[in-house]
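Hey team,

Filing this mostly as a record. A colleague (T.K.) asked me to run one chain through the structure pipeline before their review meeting, and I want the input and output archived in the tracker in case anyone asks later how it was produced. No errors, nothing strange. Just documentation.

Input sequence:
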Amino acid sequence: MKARIAAGIVAAGSLLCALALAVAVFQGYWRHRACFDENGRCFVPEDGAVHSADSLFLAPLALVFGILCIAASRYAARR
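Output structure:
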């Protein structure tokens, strides 16, 4: 019973982390992916902000948390 609750908590936490990281990738890279120059920077005059292609490294981390969420959910459901 305690393992099932712990797996549910891990699943919920990893889902929140995966969603937060996915939003960060979308806001920092994906929306502006067409305007990056050869240095990996993009200036958006509407925002007055400079975005960096370095925020793309968050995508694999979001994927890892998503896989952890699925694994923990399946473990909680199976027990």
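Quick notes for T.K.: The helical segments are 2-28, 58-78. The longest strand covers residues 41-44.
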